[in-house]
From TrEMBL, chain A:
This is Amino acid ABC transporter ATP-binding protein. It comes from Caldilineaceae bacterium SB0664_bin_27. Residues 11-245 form the ABC transporter domain. It comes from the Bacteria. Keywords: ATP-binding, Nucleotide-binding, Transport. One of its GO terms (molecular function) is ATP hydrolysis activity.
UniProtKB/TrEMBL annotation, chain B:
One of its GO terms (cellular component) is ATP-binding cassette (ABC) transporter complex. It holds the Pfam family BPD_transp_1. PANTHER family: AMINO-ACID ABC TRANSPORTER PERMEASE PROTEIN YHDX-RELATED, MEMBRANE COMPONENT OF AMINO ACID ABC TRANSPORTER. Residues 89-382 form the ABC transmembrane type-1 domain. Belongs to the binding-protein-dependent transport system permease family. HisMQ subfamily. Its main location: membrane. Keywords: Amino-acid transport, Cell membrane, Membrane, Transmembrane, Transmembrane helix, Transport. This is ABC transporter permease subunit. The chain crosses the membrane at residues 20-40, 93-113, 125-145, 183-204, 216-236, 262-281, 336-354, 366-385. One of its GO terms (biological process) is amino acid transport. It comes from the Bacteria.
From TrEMBL, chain C:
One of its GO terms (cellular component) is ATP-binding cassette (ABC) transporter complex. It is a multi-pass membrane protein. This is Amino acid ABC transporter permease. Residues 199-394 form the ABC transmembrane type-1 domain. It comes from Caldilineaceae bacterium SB0664_bin_27. GO terms for biological process: amino acid transport. GO terms for molecular function: transmembrane transporter activity. Belongs to the binding-protein-dependent transport system permease family.
Length: 249, 394, 406
């Protein structure tokens, strides 16, 4: 189904709606992401950005509309959910590393358990990934012994270990001290350059401007505006987009 | 653009998340209900084949035909089984109520001693806690009954403590008040005192809210009640006379005689539970961080104010829930009375009545139902309390 | 833990002369002001009073002869003397297993190991022990040493797994030795559980009560946290029911009614087994509540991260959730196991001769009339030693693991 052509739509969201009780968190959100594309989602807090990308790997269940990831429709079918989760890696704001496992065990757990990979093979892959995110020497430490930036890089490596086609980033730098943000963004930028499809919720406008192919602005549960970075930072159409950008820049 | 209707695609039922969820619940329910039915049908056939009886509570109105050593209400062997059950229940309440009061008092003392800066005092408290938390309650109870109260001298050589209190192997005789004709009037006066106290506390609270300086409302309340009570006691012609026990031949006369079983059970429960309560109190006080203390001091509160306004309210929040569960434990533990011959609920119902009537199902239903309602009632009240005092946190 | 007395911070402000001297210590901790001094004097009086009472009783009035005379009974109940070698073998094997485990887990001969090794030698000093008993204790000590050295000579990669297998094998061997097998005239004639008694039975009940109730309790805790309502309701009803009634009522019910619930001829006839069932069902509800505390302490992010990686609910429970939840509640669980050990005494009330049951038969024996204080004091001390060492060990482990620290 999926070839690595840049024209293929790897994520299709059509009229996605989500309610928390009476509160509608997502209103008819539609977005199509091409393979190898980097899409950055921005917007004020509470605008539904996180909810949106959490729907894509079913951490939240959407109640109306369609989500199709790499040709697999996201329904109540448990097999489809499993497949989509193994195609889409996710990086969280709070890292969510497993504190009782070493860095190495954090990375190899899912490949061994889910992909039924051999332990040695999984460790080899893990070492490769740790090299890639620049902290091979931390393999035997526990997450609690690492700095925030290092933890987030481990979390990225952990997701990559499942060799996903898509990476979802949910405010990956928001819980970090300023001096550590860059090391994580560098890893993400390098990842984007290798052609990974990425969907990134962030407040880092520098990153958005430099790395994003397209930027999505969300407010009040709706997708207000979609466009290239140049379009966004030079002539945004929507009033609320302009207001948001003026506040944040 | 391709047409998409992903949500209209229905997965096969064996892969449908929702179906799987319902199915696994059904599976568990079927297993549990099936097991229950299996036990129940075994029980019914067993009862029919072996004993030829059906479940019925009608035996409760038959004459019990056995005596009970001590009772708070009038009881004799001619009364019904139901009456006997109630006698046991009241005895359980009595032990639990007194046990809770004394265990709390002792527990608080030991818990505070444990935190004392005096090395010796805190050592004594921690030794007490370490000893009694690590000995089985049943061993303690039987020890207390058989190695202490049973070993007390005969009545003629009773140990006399000031009071006078007579300690002998027949039990403990203590002075006891006997209400006179004016007792009812005195109770009325006391009730008036409580009312007055309540009114005064209400105004004090309002004033406190207005000025922002909370007076010691509880203290004022108690002082009012005591003052009114004292006046009533003096004005009325002796609402109560003191009946003191005295030796006469081989027995004590007068006063109130607490049986040695009762005393053994009560003191065992108190000593044991106090060790646990002490730990609860200590943990509660220590849970209030040093920062809170320092903040209070730097605001200029004196130590007494710090204790009353800052430490105590916060410590109480931590203390109350585990304290309640200790109270429940004490109540449930009082069922060990059966080991030392005190006729509490379990000893009367689970032992005597059950042995006489052979009504296992009915008696266990009643016993467990009673204990269960007590526990559920307590945790219900606890939940309300917890909701009320919950700190508003994000 | 902070102790109230002598924190380092107030030490540093004192004049040098008062810091380390005995007098300085006394002044600071006992006689800092008038009130404190009064308190100290009262406390000293209290201690002297109690100590005199206890010492006079223990060394003058008490007749300790009852203990040595009934020592075997207290230790193993009615377990036949001719088969006592089986119990010794179990103890020797335990020594060996502990030695091996120590080498596998800790790997070094540290302070606690020395205490463990000292135990048999200290016991050998007990004056009324027969030569044979002392010899057996010596063998146990030797067995633990052999186990330690043997485990050291092995090359084992997965130590945790090796330890688990070792324990499992030991359990099976222990049960076979205890229960016996084959003909009545054979090498190991069967010994019915009702004959097991004394300390032996108390320890067995506690051990099996713990091991059997633990998995059940974990399942119930997971059930109570489940998002499927039916499973949650069933777990809650079970837990709240059991926690609402006294253990004694369950034990009586087990003796009287278990038979009624089961079809005719179901092999659960043994008193001890029926008591064990009641204890297990009882303890599981409490384990469930304690484990639930641990489950609640785990952030939602952990579940989400596991989900996002594609782990199934079962996999994330086994690999992510339970290891963290259980580690967080180790101290509470140890406390619960101690109270379970203490609660096993209740079986004495349903005609089983555990430590307390045996004590009651001894004092009912006309030869030993009036020895209640001695007998009960002795078994109280036995219980105390076991419970206290458990809680002490747990506190030490807690400190080393840093559990419960923020």
């Amino acid at each position: 189904m999926s070839e690595n052509s840049t024209t293929e739509e790897i994520i299709i969201c059509q009229d996605v709606c989500k309610w928390f009780g009476d509160f509608q968190a997502l209103k008819d959100c539609s977005l199509r992401v091409m393979a190898q594309e980097v899409v950055v989602i921005i917007g004020p807090s509470g605008s539904g950005k996180s909810t949106f990308i959490r729907c894509i790997n079913r951490l939240e269940e959407h109640q109306a509309g369609d989500i199709i990831v790499d040709g697999i429709p996201l329904t109540r079918d448990v097999r489809n959910i499993e497949q989509i989760r193994s195609e889409a890696g996710m990086v969280f704001q709070q890292f969510n590393l497993f504190p009782h496992l070493t860095v190495m065990e954090n990375i190899t757990l899912a490949p061994i358990q889910v992909r039924k990979m051999k332990k040695e093979e999984a460790q080899e892959t893990a070492m490769g990934l740790l090299n890639r995110v620049g902290i091979p020497e931390q393999a035997d430490k526990y997450p609690g012994q690492l700095s925030g930036g290092q933890q987030q890089r481990v979390a990225i490596a952990r997701s990559l270990a499942m060799s996903p086609k898509i990476m979802l980033f949910d405010e990956p730098t928001s819980a970090l001290d300023p001096e550590m943000i860059k090391e994580v963004l560098d890893v993400m930028q390098e990842l984007a350059e290798t052609g990974m499809t990425m969907l990134v919720v962030t407040h880092e406008m520098g990153f958005a401007r430099e790395v994003a192919d397209r930027i999505v602005f969300m407010d009040g549960g709706e997708i207000m505006e979609v466009g290239t970075p140049e379009h966004f930072f030079t002539n945004a159409q929507h009033e609320r987009t302009k207001l948001f950008l003026s506040q944040i820049l | 653009m391709q047409e998409i209707h992903a949500s209209q695609v229905r997965p096969p039922f064996y892969r449908d998340e929702r179906v799987l969820g319902i199915f696994s619940q059904l599976l568990v329910v079927v297993i549990v209900v099936g097991l229950g039915l299996f036990f129940y049908s075994n029980m019914i056939t067993g009862l029919r084949e072996k004993h030829n009886v059906a479940i019925s509570f009608s035996f409760l109105s038959q004459a019990a035909g056995f005596d009970i050593g001590e009772s708070l209400i009038e009881y004799s062997r001619e009364r019904t089984y139901l009456r006997a059950f109630v006698v046991g229940l009241l005895n359980t309440f009595q032990v639990a109520f007194l046990g809770i009061i004394f265990a709390t008092a002792l527990g608080i003392v030991i818990g505070v001693m444990r935190l004392s800066t005096n090395f010796l005092v805190s050592r004594i408290a921690s030794i007490y806690i370490d000893i009694f938390r690590n000995i089985p309650l049943l061993v303690l109870l039987i020890f207390w009954a058989q190695a202490v109260f049973l070993k007390l001298p005969r009545v003629a050589e009773a140990i006399i403590l000031p009071g006078p209190i007579f300690l002998s192997n027949r039990g403990v005789a203590i002075p006891w008040g006997i209400p006179t004709d004016s007792w009812g009037a005195f109770l009325l006066v006391l009730a008036a005192g409580v009312l007055l106290g309540a009114v005064i506390s209400y105004f004090l609270r309002e004033q406190g809210k207005r000025t922002g300086r909370m007076p010691l409302i509880t203290l004022w309340f108690l002082v009012t009640v005591a003052a009114v009570g004292l006046v009533g006691w003096i004005v009325l012609p002796q609402p109560m006379t003191l009946d003191q026990p005295f030796l006469e031949g081989f027995n004590t006369q007068g006063g109130k005689i607490l049986s040695q079983q009762f005393m053994a059970l009560l003191s065992g429960l108190i000593i044991y539970t106090a060790a646990f309560i002490a730990e609860v109190v200590r943990a509660g006080i220590q849970s209030v961080s040093k920062g809170q203390r320092e903040a209070a001091t730097s605001l200029g509160l004196n130590p007494a104010q710090t204790l009353r306004l800052i430490i105590f309210p916060q410590a109480l929040r931590v203390i109350i829930p585990p304290l309640t569960s200790q109270y429940l434990n004490l109540t449930k533990n009082s069922s060990l009375a059966i080991a030392i011959g005190y006729p509490d609920l379990f000893a009367v119902a689970g032992n005597t009545i059950l042995n006489q009537t052979g009504r296992e199902i009915e008696m266990f239903t009643m016993i467990m139902g009673t204990y269960l309602s007590l526990s559920l009632l307590t945790s219900f009240l606890m939940n309300i309390y917890n909701r009320r005092i919950r700190l508003v946190e994000r | 833990m902070t102790t109230a007395a002598g924190t380092p911070s107030d030490r540093s402000v004192l004049p040098v002369t008062e810091r380390y001297t005995v007098l300085g210590w006394l002044r600071r901790n006992l006689f800092s002001d008038l009130f404190n001094s009064l308190l100290t004097i009262v406390a000293i009086g209290f201690v002297i009073f109690i100590a005199r009472l206890l010492l006079r009783w223990a060394f003058v009035n008490a007749e300790w002869g009852v203990i040595p005379a009934n020592f075997n009974l207290i230790m193993r109940g009615q377990y036949p003397s001719a088969e006592a070698w089986r119990l010794w073998l179990i103890i020797h094997l335990l020594g060996a297993v502990v030695g091996m485990m120590w080498r596998l887990i800790s790997g070094q001969f540290s302070g606690a190991a020395r205490v463990l090794v000292a135990i048999p030698f200290v016991l050998m000093l007990i004056p009324f022990f027969a030569m044979e008993t002392r010899l057996n204790l010596l063998i146990t000590a030797a067995a633990s040493g052999v186990g330690y050295l043997f485990a050291g000579s092995l090359y084992i990669q997965r130590r945790g797994r090796a330890t688990a297998y070792l324990l499992l094998v030991y359990l099976v061997v222990m049960l076979i030795l205890l229960r016996g097998a084959g003909a009545d005239e054979g090498l190991m004639p069967p010994v019915q559980p009702i004959l097991w008694g004394g300390l032996l039975l108390s320890l067995l009940l506690a051990f099996f009560g713990i091991t059997l109730s633990f998995p059940l309790g974990v399942l119930l805790a997971l059930g109570r946290q489940s998002k499927l309502p039916a499973i949650r309701v069933i777990s809650v009803v079970y837990i709240e029911f059991i926690r609402g009634v006294p253990l004694i009522s369950l034990l009586f019910m087990g003796q009287v009614m278990l038979q009624l619930f089961l079809p005719d001829g179901f092999p659960l006839v043994d008193r001890v087994l029926r008591a064990l069932v009641a204890i297990t069902l009882f303890s599981a509800a409490y384990t469930a509540e304690n484990v639930r505390g641990g489950l609640q302490s785990i952030s939602r992010g952990q579940y989400e991260a596991a989900q996002a990686l594609g782990l199934s609910t079962f996999q994330s429970t086994i690999h992510i959730i339970l290891p963290q939840a259980l580690r967080a509640v180790i101290p509470v669980l140890v406390g619960q196991f101690i109270s379970l050990f203490k609660d096993t005494t209740l079986v004495a009330l349903v005609g089983i001769f555990d430590l307390l049951g045996i004590a009651r038969t001894i004092i009912a024996n006309p030869d030993w009339l009036g020895t209640q204080p001695e007998v009960f004091a002795f078994i109280a001390v036995l219980f105390w030693i076991f419970s206290y060492s458990m809680s002490y060990a747990s506190r030490r482990i807690e400190q080393r693991l840093g559990v419960g620290e923020r």
